[in-house]
Specification:
Layout (H helix, E strand, L loop, with lengths): L1 H14 L12 H8 L5 E7 L8 E7 L17 H14 L2 E7 L1 H7 L1 H14 L7 E5 L9 E4 L2 H4 L1 H25 L5 H4 L5 H10 L11 H10 L1
Length: 228
């Protein structure tokens, strides 16, 4: 009887369907717009929305019609090395690339959602080539252009994925360079301004800097005052 059971298990294992990897056409959304007559399509995305420190950074990227760049995906899914490689390719191949930044004081004043939208708008308006339409990662931008808000757009659209990579690399380099030098001790180069345990400990130790988002740190501000 045990042998029969083992045989049944073997049959089940042999007949279990294999998972099929679905290949995503990251140009599908672009192809739809190209077919409608839109030539210059700008992908738009932002990074740093959830950070406790530093600017929220957005990018807008227009890639040539029909161009496919292998490896583009949501920047968070890529290694730093891969992001840097793709960043160079995107800047070399793009019709136009631009970046928009909104500082922490503005974030505190208008809230992070509105600040993210503003950074995206700034990036679009800074493009040296006029876009015909926009593909935006899950947001609506206040510009007079046809646009589509795409949930998980950085994984589904090459243009949005390219913008995600440009924004991420730009912000990470600010963290590792300018911001780490100007605000030593917080470990910005390592955690990129996110609310890690180490970052929170450093805020309690060193205090809240002028590049921290005070609206994100109301409770910690009170804790720091108690420790003084």
């Amino acid at each position: 009887m045990p042998r029969a059971k083992k045989s049944e298990e073997t049959i089940k294992a042999a007949t279990k369907p294999k998972k099929i990897k679905v290949e995503i056409d990251r140009l599908l959304l672009e192809k739809e717009l190209w077919a409608e007559g839109f030539a210059h399509i700008a992908g738009v995305d932002e990074v740093g929305r959830g950070c406790m420190f530093g600017d929220v950074v957005a990018a807008a990227v227009i890639l040539p019609t029909g161009l496919k760049i292998e490896g583009i995906d949501d920047s968070k899914k890529l290694s730093e090395k891969k992001r840097d490689e793709l960043y160079d390719i995107i800047l070399r191949e793009a019709v136009a690339v631009s970046v928009g930044r909104v500082d922490p004081k503005t974030i505190d004043r208008i809230n992070i959602k509105q600040a993210s939208r503003l950074a995206m708008k700034m990036a679009v308006e800074a493009l040296t080539e006029q876009p015909d339409a926009l593909l935006v990662d899950a947001e609506t931008i206040q510009v007079d252009l046809p646009q589509r808000a795409i949930i998980k757009g950085d994984s589904l659209s090459q243009s949005i994925g390219a913008a995600s990579i440009v924004a991420k690399v730009t912000r990470d380099r600010l963290c590792a360079g300018e911001w780490e030098q100007d605000y030593p001790g917080y470990g910005i180069a390592v955690h990129k301004g996110y609310g890690t345990a180490v970052h929170r400990e450093k805020i309690l130790e060193l205090g809240i800097s002028d590049l921290h988002r005070h609206s994100f740190l109301v409770k910690m501000k009170a804790e720091h005052e108690e420790l003084r």
